[in-house]
Amino acid sequence: MPKVAQLPEAGAAEDVSASVLEALDCLRIAVTLFDSEECLIYSNTHFNYLFRSLPPHESLIGASYADLIRLEIAGGEIAEPECLDADTFIARRRQQLIEGSYRPFDIPLANGRTIELKARRTRDGGWIVLWTDVTEARNLFARLEDAIELSADAFAFWDRNDRLVLCNTAFAEMHGAPVPAAIVNVPFEELVHDAVRHDKFAIDGHAENWIERRLEAHRAPAGALTVTTTEGPSYLVRERATRDGGSATVFTDVTERRRIEAALTEQTRALQRTRKALLKTKTEARRRSSYLADLTRQLDAAEAEADTAKTTLLRTMSHELKTPLNAIIGFSDLLGAMPGRFSAEQVSEYAGLIHTAGGNLLRLINQILDLTKISAGRFPLHKAVMPISSALYSTVDALGARAADKQISLSVEDCGADLFVEADENALTTMIANLAENAIAFTQEGGEVTISARRDDDFICVVVTDNGPGVAPEDLSRILAPFEQAGRGTADHSHGAGLGLPLVKSLAELHGGALAVANGEHGGLIATLELPSA
């Protein structure tokens, strides 16, 4: 026969009850019991520790829950503005009992502490209410909210049921919510579906496949994938499981890295096209068979060319820097020494000469800096798809006055509206302007300069033609090197330092294109700029 537990005797039961009450008084939370009429029937000693302005807890037995709340307000325990409308505050507190809600209720106290109330219904129709000081926990949570709000990344935390616990504003706005509180407690899968339904992310392919990849990364212990919003920015999404059974999500902006990867891909394609073109040439086999001999000759030639380049650079820079500087210093000294001896027309003329000399000097320095950046591989390109016609007409508008001063006709011919290139806008403007300026500089008065564009397979060709004297055949390749000029050697600097065409050539190659120059059948020079078609 199994043993049956014996009920304790009356004295033993009283001892047990006394022990339980003593144990309740040792708790660091306040425990209160209310009957079905909301009247207090028990309170432990910690209740007076939380609310020190209230009478001893034994004297409160029989008081209603509403009376206790009024005593809290009267004793200055409750922080403003909660206690400004006492009736409303009492109604909110009692609502927790009436509804039997299991959701905690926070009370901000005047001394800066926060008390959390948890209410449960008892078997006899009354209530048990637990009062816990959660000040430190709430402060830690607030600090966490402030920390992630200050982060440049988008943060979100999920509980073990995959519901949103906390996020910053960046995450909320990315998913279509005005504030984080609007999506708290929303399941992860529901949030992803809502974001797709409201077109918050750019989706390549079927939406169901995109959602499935997003869910797989989220459910993995350490998942990651890249997403792009419909507004343009790209983000690396990292998912990590947390020690409490939930997970954390971090969105990091990787837009710039994606742009660099796309630029590298474009450069790789351009190099591949160039390599295929080289492989097609008939001289490739002969060049490989004599590679070592050619390399030796090239090294010797490069050494000699380097010495020549040094001499040329020093001679050219000496002249190109001294000429505008002498003009600036001379005219400014003249105006400064005898300011009263010149008429307004003379001052205006001298100021114009100083401005022209300064502009020439600035242009020379900019060209040298651009060539240096390209040579070092540090010239930034910001490519975009644009019509070639706008660049051509902008060049004509910018250089129209200069051409008119020499009585030269400058115009755009044969440029279709369907011709688009993928290029850096500033670099494109610089290339076309340099070609047009070169043509104007070497065309005699009364001459003609035309600019046109056409499609050639995967390239757009911009052609600048003039009816000037042209270039000697042996000089055609030489004029594409820095500080070289057509038919005048390196000592003639009347038309600049010889950096315009080399800069165009370098910028074109940086875009995966090329620059070619040739003499026209009836004289003049034809410069052809090739750029990849968009």
Give a description of the structure.
The protein is built from 15 helices and 18 strands. The protein is of the alpha+beta class and about 525 residues long. The protein has 5 domains: about 15-135, Beta-Lactamase (2-Layer Sandwich), CATH 3.30.450; about 140-255, 2-Layer Sandwich (Beta-Lactamase); about 260-285; about 290-380, Signal transduction histidine kinase, dimerisation/phosphotransfer (DHp) domain (Helix Hairpins), CATH 1.10.287.130; about 380-534, Histidine kinase-like ATPase, C-terminal domain (Heat Shock Protein 90, 2-Layer Sandwich). A 6-stranded antiparallel sheet has the order 7-6-11-10-9-8, with helices on both faces. Strand 17 and strand 18 form a beta hairpin. The longest helix is centred in the middle third of the chain and has 47 residues, at about 290-335.
* CATH C-level class of the largest domain: Alpha Beta
Strand order of the largest sheet: 7-6-11-10-9-8
Number of strands: 18
Roughly how many Å apart are the termini? 94 Å
Instruction: Summarize the amount of helix as a percent range.
Output: 40-55%
What's the story with the biggest beta sheet? 6 strands, antiparallel
Overall tally of structural domains: 5
Which structural class do the helices and strands define?
alpha+beta
Percent of residues in β-strands: 15-25%
Low-confidence stretches: 1-8, 487-494
Total helical segments: 15
Overall pLDDT, averaged? 81
**CATH homology-level superfamily of the largest domain:** Histidine kinase-like ATPase, C-terminal domain
Per the CATH scheme, the topology name of the largest domain is Heat Shock Protein 90
Radius of gyration: 41 Å
Provide the CATH architecture of the largest domain: 2-Layer Sandwich
Shape: elongated
